[in-house]
Hints:
The complex is a heterotrimer. Chain A is of the alpha/beta class. Chain A has 9 helices and 10 strands. By secondary structure, chain B is α/β, with parallel strands linked by helices. Chain B has a domain at 1-85 and 223-278: Rossmann fold (3-Layer(aba) Sandwich), CATH 3.40.50. Chain B has helices at residues 47-55, 81-87, 99-102, 109-120, 125-138, 144-148, 157-169, 187-204, 215-221, 248-255, and strands at residues 6-17, 20-32, 36-40, 62-65, 68-71, 74-75, 92-95, 175-179, 207-212, 224-229, 232-238. Chain B has a 6-stranded mixed β-sheet with strand order 7-8-9-3-10-11, sandwiched between helices. In chain B, helix 4 crosses helix 5 and helix 5 (125-138) crosses helix 7 (157-169). Chain B starts with 5 loop residues before the first strand and ends in a 23-residue tail after the last helix. Classes of the chains: A alpha/beta, B alpha/beta, C mainly alpha. Chains in contact: A-B, A-C.
Amino acid sequence: MLDIQKLQVVFGTGRLRVDAVKDVSFHVEPGEAYGLVGESGSGKSTVLRAICGLAPITSGRVLVDGAEVTTPRSKAFYRTVQMVFQDPYASLHPRHTVDRTLSEPLAIHGEKDTETRILQALREVGLGPSFRFRYPHQLSGGQRQRIAIARALILRPKVLLLDEPTSALDASVQAEILNLLDDLRRKMGLTYILVSHDLAVVAHLCERLLVMRHGEAVEETTSAALRSGAASNEYTQSLIQASQGFTRNAKPPLQSLAG
Amino acid sequence: MTKPLLDVEDLRVRFHLRTGTVEAVRGVTLQLGRERLGIVGESGSGKSQTGRAILGLTPPPGEVTAKRLAFDGIDLLTASKRTLRTLRGGRISMVMQDPKYSLNPVMTIGEQIIEAYQAHAKAGRGEARDKALAMLEAVKMRDPARVFSLYPHEVSGGMGQRAMIAMMLVTDPDLLIADEPTSALDVTVSMEVLRILDELVTERGMGLIFISHDLKLVSSFCDRVLVMYAGRVVEELEAKNLREAKHPYTQGLMRCLPTLADDVRPLPTLNRDPAWAL
Amino acid sequence: MAGSPALSPSSTGWRAWLLSPEPHSRWQARLGRFYLGWRAFSRNPLAVIGLGIVLLLILVALFADVIAPYSPVAGGDLRTQRLLPPSETFWLGTDDQARDIFSRIVYGSRITLFVVVLVALIATPIGLLVGTVAGYLGGWVDTVLMRITDIFLAFPRLVLALAFVAALGPGIENAIIAIAITSWPPYARIARAETLMVRNSDFIASVKLQGASTPRIILGHVVPLCVSSLIVRVTLDMAGIILTAAGLGFLGLGAQPPMPEWGAMVATGRNYLIDQWWVAAMPGIAIFVVSLGFNLLGDGLRDVLDPKAAK
């Protein structure tokens, strides 16, 4: 479904040159969920942005459905690939109602049945028709992220790029959104690429994942291997350990009670 | 047991807005000794406002009331502005979420630490400088002298947060309030920062209030945890007994996180009972 | 007023409808938003006074024929009715042509309104378009457009207006054109600054990813976010525009006699300032009140539309 070959992304030139992504390759099967894990500055988000044209492809190839993408991307590309952003407070236009937000992609692509498709899109993400004419400030963070997902799905894409879709949300809301994403993938046969700094989230949603650091691919592994602790790479190991919470190394917990 | 370092009873923070009064904190009672106390809750639970109210940093138009709000026997509600100023930054310090917004961008890190120190201790420049360098070393900066002369934008997030901690601890406070000190940082970096914080707190015998949304992190770091929901403390427990949490909210918060250990699908979600907020 | 606490029970119905968190139609959502804005606006008494003055100006201009007791251009008896002080017959006195000053001010409101509306209609869209396009596209487009803006910004308004009038001949239309082409550059600056703030935001990126064309993004997504701060700025600028128009009139380069333009009226009154003060003072007060009205309105609008700048 998606093939990334020796992708390289460079911003700026000369002294300001930043090699955001260095020679990263991976392949995603149709219907698969693939994770990109790393800390800030690892280039994981830049890979997503390069796929959808928000960042330049300096060298290498990005193939969707076997065909190399064009720059600028064609309308057909946007019907196949859509993206959900990290911060639901920033990804919805503050002056547009949900209705306007959802009808925009339909209008751009000249689709009919705006009315029914909007209501259907709302239903798919678990929101009722009562949400249709609300402004973003009348919605909670989780509801906003549902709207953002509905907007991404309304053109019936095959690939969804998810850029930290739950990291701005509370834990309980994160669980709801993860369940929704899981459901939607099964129902619609979607292909996901999920970017996250949270190993547990990636392992929950994805079958395979790529660990990135400083713009380079560190290790490609599977969620099953991650769960069984079979990660071979030292950096991956340190990420796994950090995700378990704080550990006081060596020393037993100090009991410094009220004195 | 001697008197606690911090004694708070029935703390309330109200915001009088045009649309009516919003009570962000609704009667929090807590006592803190020289220990690590975690306050956990989701956004809007009032955890940050609790920390700010203790420091007297409630933004206007907020109004703070309490039956008792005492730090080491000093009543913070009736204390003069002067007393508060010497306490704040001197004996009570606060580390905020993002070092980018808490450090002065036009002053070097060293200057800021010196300034913080001199504001609360009568010390010459040379002494303050030594103290600042020692503090930067204490937060495990690899090259303290270099970091000393850097501006905040020249350091990474992790280093900025460590500089912030150095600045906050240079006056040897008795109480440190850390509001999401690591949530702007990468996991591996945040573990490092927490380790430093942990060492300093233990060594100096400080009281620590650690405010966070991350139950897992707080329970692994603190001795005792308060769980807040809708402005109230719904449960208080020893960190090591977190598994035996009684309140459905605490239980829900723990279960809804995906873990590497087991693969639960779908993830259990939290059914908020309106009764919790009563 | 809508925000007052003494609310009749019958109004609760439509209030609830307007404030409903679950609007049932596009219109209800929009009206609800508007109503919230109005509630915030009406809480500021000075702003309401400003709005009242501006509305009064509009009403007076519309119904000048009905309100004015005399003709604004044809004078009375030059021997007996020149330079009369305010009285019951001539409320604000008469000028050196024996014309009723009150009637002239009433008709003059039309000219003032005409100037204000036309300048706003010409300058705002130009500024908005130049600013958003420059800010959104960036690169050389931005450089070229902003340098042009700088060039226009460098002209002193009155001097350019003088040059224009010298070239095209005196008259209110030429004065308006001159004012309009010197007013848009600040609007372009504001629009560009706002655009730079939003152009890298996720909601613009997401509409880009839906395949929207650049004009669509600028007009449908960027412009609505710039409009409110621009409205505030334009309203606040109105006073200056009125003063410039009056200034041109005063110099004899704006509206031509016998048009009852307020600035020109002040100019004729200046010869009699000591003995017949009302000839210059009455139109002067009119200019002052209307300018004040626009400024108060602008401040009120800023509090509602642009809460960041109000602080």
